Amino acid sequence: MKRSYKDRYNDGNDFANLVTGIIVFYLLYLVLLWFTNKANFWRWLLYGFGVVALSFIGVLVWRRMKEKRRLAKRDWTVNTISQAGLEESINNFIVRFGLGERSKNAWRRRNYNIDWYRIHDLQEDLAKQNIKFTLTDMSILLSHYINKREHDVTTKSINASTINSFTKLSSSDFERLLDRLYRVMGYSVQLNGRTGDQGGDLIATKGQERILIQAKCYINSTVGNSAVQQVVAARNHYDCNRAAVVTSGYFTKEAVELAKTNNVELIPREILQKMLLDYLHESWN
């Protein structure tokens, strides 16, 4: 996959080098004609202007056709997902895997970075449901939902009556904010935040889902391995089948790796801000 993109990039460079060579040769030829045959000079200069004009028109037509094809492809992929009832799954995929650590083998769109292997996994999962998308289709699909998500976030941020600040929250305030958030999301919530809480601040329950949540109200520091280790150790203690660490800050690379190994959901600042906008309609920074 990565090699094919590199090859296409190199092909583009080769074409650009060819065009540059032709232009340089043409200019040198004009200089030669200026000193040897001015009649031919003016004729070849007009030829050059004609080629440039035709090329410009051709590029405009090509771009419009390309954009028309892209929009048609986007509408087809989005309609396919919508008709299959998988829009929520695609959004969950973006939230779960789009705001992690940057990697060299990542597909990028706006502030989202998704590992290509994750995209392959999603592509294979869709194929099992008889939805056969190419990687280009996957890129168009994910771009659409990310653009829509970011547009919604921007709109809600602009329309929010007040902007709240994580810096003004104590640890208890932060836990109560998460309590409100998860209740609006349809969970029944038990606040555990106290000394000796065994590594779990909240327990959110919905149906058979029981999530142990560790809340970390950090601003100028990152959440490391210890928070993940605590919630892993406490998950069985509280008889929970899921575990999450939620922070107003960010996670270290080591914490991200440990969380993946132990199936712990990490919710950093950006995802938390989107959740607060989506469910509480509150803007936080």
Secondary-structure blueprint:
Elements: H1 2-36, H2 38-83, H3 87-97, E1 106-109, E2 112-115, H4 116-128, H5 135-159, E3 163-164, H6 171-184, E4 188-191, E5 202-206, E6 209-216, E7 222-223, H7 225-237, E8 242-247, E9 250-251, H8 253-261, E10 265-267, H9 269-280, E11 283-284
Helix pairs in contact: 1-2, 2-5, 7-8
Characteristics:
11 strands; disordered N terminus; 9 helices; two-stranded antiparallel ribbon; five-stranded mixed sheet; 285 residues; alpha/beta
Outline the structure in words:
The chain is an alpha/beta fold and 285 residues long. 62% of the residues lie in helices and 15% in strands. The strands form four sheets. It has a five-stranded mixed beta sheet, with helices on both faces. It has a two-stranded antiparallel sheet with strand order 1-2. Strand 5 (202-206) and strand 6 form a beta hairpin. The chain starts with a helix and ends with a strand.
Instruction: Figure out the total of helices.
Output: 9
Assess the beta-strand content as a share of residues. Answer: 5-15%
Shape: elongated
State the strand order across the main sheet.
4-5-6-8-10
Round the mean pLDDT to the nearest integer and report it: 84
Fraction of residues in helices?
Answer: 55-70%
Low-confidence stretches: 1-6
Q: Work out the number of β strands.
A: 11
Secondary-structure element order, N to C: HHHEEHHEHEEEEHEEHEHE
Give the N-to-C terminal Cα separation: 38 Å
Using the CA coordinates, give the radius of gyration.
27 Å
Biggest beta-sheet profile: 5 strands, mixed
Question: Helix- and strand-based class?
Answer: alpha/beta
